[in-house]
Design brief:
The protein is an alpha+beta fold and 147 residues long. The chain contains seven helices and three strands; from the N terminus they run E-E-H-E-H-H-H-H-H-H. Helix content is 55%, strand content 12%. It is elongated.
Length: 147
């Protein structure tokens, strides 16, 4: 389980996304596309293995193996689509609606990610997240509760 973080000039972390090998195994860095150092970081929440493919290696594989090019493009497009969707959901819903969405679409996040990171992802305090979670669980009989 990995977090994708944005770190601002003051060192404050914002959670951009969550990645787990069984569901969302690919994580791309903005620096790969921009060819410059990134303000994004990857943080492991569990023991895991992260394999990095430098851009020149991806380009060599793409030239040698057309099937790899198709696979790689599909992965990038899927990641972009997921990022756009979650960004739109975050921007167009209040925190309670966003939490309902996470329960409905991404229960694995609720069950595996510590509350403080979900709160950061949602852009709310830990205290407010816990209140919303308690309210949501009470309304739905404690299904999918996690710590």
């Amino acid at each position: 389980m990995f977090l994708h973080l944005y770190v601002n000039s003051h060192g404050d972390e914002s959670v951009v996304g969550f990645f787990v090998d069984t569901l969302h195994p690919f994580l791309a860095s903005v620096s790969y596309i921009s060819h410059s150092p990134s303000d994004f970081e990857i943080k492991a929440l569990e023991d895991g293995e992260l394999i990095a493919f430098p851009r020149p290696h991806i380009e060599i594989l793409s030239r040698r193996y057309p099937a790899f090019t198709v696979f790689y493009q599909e992965v990038i497009l899927l990641m972009l689509a997921k990022n756009c969707t979650i960004y739109a959901v975050r921007q167009s819903n209040n925190s309670e609606e966003l939490l309902r969405y996470l329960y409905a679409e991404y229960l694995w996040i609720i069950n595996r990610v510590p509350d403080k990171y979900i709160a950061r992802f949602m852009g709310i305090s830990n205290e407010w997240y816990c209140k919303l979670k308690k309210k949501l669980l009470a309304a739905h009989g404690n299904a999918g509760s996690a710590g």
